[in-house]
Amino acid sequence: MCTGSCAKCLGVTLIPLAILCTLANILLFFPGGIVSDSNDHITDEVWYFGGILGSGVLMVFPALVFLGLKNNDCCGCCGNESCGKRFAMFSSFIFAAVGVVGAGYNFIVSAVAINKGPKCLGQNSTQWDYQFHNGDYLTNRDLWTACQKPEDIIPWNLTLFSLLLIMSGVQAVLCAIQVINGILGTLCGDCSCCGFCGGDGAV
User: Fold this and answer.
1) Cβ(53)–Cβ(18) below 8 Å
2) Do residues 128 and 121 make contact, with C-beta atoms less than 8 angstroms apart?
3) What is the domain extent for residue 125?
4) Which residue of 44, 91, 154, 169 has the fewest CB atoms within a 10 Å radius of its CB?
5) What is the C-alpha to C-alpha distance for residues 29 and 48, in angstroms, rounded to an integer?
6) How many domains does the chain have?
7) What gap in Å lies between CA 130 and CA 134, rounded to an integer?
8) What string of H, E and C letters represents the secondary structure of the chain?
9) Residue 123 belongs to some domain of the structure
10) Topology with regard to the membrane (predicted)?
11) Residue 198 is assigned to a structural domain of this protein
12) 191 CB contacts (<8 Å, ≥6 apart)?
């Protein structure tokens, strides 16, 4: 398979994932699905913009680069004519590395947020704060009663941050695949068939 075709498949997959991560991060600004009375009521990790920046903005650039690589064909594979294609694949390797960093950032932020739990109004308290420690609420649902407001904040945050965690993990894997694909493309032009091309450059 041509490395350009492989890159296009990865780019097509990354675009919707980037959009979904952005939407998930935006929804986290509405704890429990309602408009918050104060920014202090929103979980701190939401403000790190893991889904918007890490898996959103930083993922759009690699995706667009990957999509553009399909314009290269397999002609001239392993020959002098593939110089431009090699450079294009090398650039995709750089952007793929950026994508891994962005996805990794979102993954770490989401993991920390899940472990800490949401910021909420505790029982017999007038201050919004973190009510859980070291993810203890994940294995003991009885502890969820510690959060009085907003309603359903725990499943809300847990669901959205879990989605961000999973999607950023998928993005990191896809970009890692393109890192390898980019190396192959740099060495072999636009095809992973280096040394196996016919005289006309066909696979």
Assistant:
1) no
2) yes
3) 3-188
4) 44
5) 11
6) 1
7) 11
8) CEHHHHHHHHHHHHHHHHHHHHHHHHHCCCHHHCCCCCHHHCCHHHHHCHHHHHHHHHHHHHHHHHHHHHHCCCCCCCCHHHHHHHHHHHHHHHHHHHHHHHHHHHHHHHHHHHHHCCEEEECCCCCEEECCCCCHHHCCHHHHHHEEECCCHHHHHHHHHHHHHHHHHHHHHHHHHHHHHHHHHHHHCCECCCCCCCCCCCC
9) yes
10) Multi-pass membrane protein
11) no
12) 2, 3, 74, 77, 78, 185, 197, 203
Does the residue 203 lie in any domain? no
pTM: 0.84
C-alpha dihedral over 91, 92, 93, 99, to 10 degrees?
Answer: 120
CA distance linking residue 197 with residue 203, whole number of Å: 5
User: What residues contact 133, with CB distance under 8 A and at least 6 apart?
Assistant: none
User: Within 13 Å of residue 108, how many CA atoms lie on the same side as its CB?
Assistant: 8
Tell me the pLDDT tens digit for each residue of 127-171. 889 999 888 999 999 999 999 989 899 999 999 999 999 999 999
